[in-house]
Amino acid sequence: MTTPPRIHDRIELLQGDITQIKADALVTAANAGLRGGGGVDGAIHGAGGPEILEECRRIGGCPTGKAVATTGGKLAARWVIHAVGPIWRGGGQEEAALLASAYRESLNLLVSLGGSSIAFPSISTGVYGYPLEEASVIALDTILRFLRREPRVTHVKMVLFGERTFHAYQRALKSLSE
Ligand code: ADP
Q1: CATH number of the domain at 7-177, please?
Q2: CA-nearest residue, atom 15 of ligand 1
Q3: pLDDT tens across 69-91, in order?
Q4: Other C-beta atoms within 10 Å of 26: how many?
Q5: Domain definitions of the chain by residue range
Q6: Is 41 a catalytic residue?
Q7: Exactly one of 17, 24, 41, 141 is catalytic; which is it?
Q8: E-strand spans in the chain?
Q9: How far apart are CA 32 and CA 7, in angstroms?
Q10: Which of 15, 44, 54 is nearest to 157 (CA)?
């Protein structure tokens, strides 16, 4: 009898640039207008090519807490999932629920597309200003809960840009494993 892989073996923390990652889907931290931007979104559109933005224009937009999929363009991914995280406004505007939802909706979309591997950046902790310590716990807790109930997602990579972000996610994963 084969035993399914342990939950913690299906999630990996990496420090680096998400555009270099191979997965069925790469998630970008998009804005609600899907207009492309700076940060990780700029990097993904830059590496994936104009086809992605053309598809975003056809889709038109995406509410905060939700996600939409486009082609992966020139990236080593079948799809880019554009997830819209909340802008931090002090914590009283449903930011935590909206951030969790952005991760969950991305994972649901991956499953509905038939994919099994996905790479995430740290949504909302750049220009959107979400405090890193809180965001890292929400991101990992949401992903771990999802993996517990959904065996079809076999690989989740959290691709963290910079040491500070990477270390925050390492601490969060450790705290959630205890
Ligand atoms: P948001 O607007 O949701 O805050 P940002 O793109 O400003 O999105 O930042 C989200 C996170 O993505 C930040 O931790 C930022 O350092 C990181 N980031 C920027 N470029 C990349 C990249 N190429 N790969 C992975 N993460 C990146």
Answers
A1: 3.40.220.10
A2: 126
A3: 999 999 999 999 999 999 999 99
A4: 28
A5: 7-177
A6: yes
A7: 41
A8: 11-15, 25-29, 67-71, 79-83, 117-120, 155-160
A9: 32
A10: 15
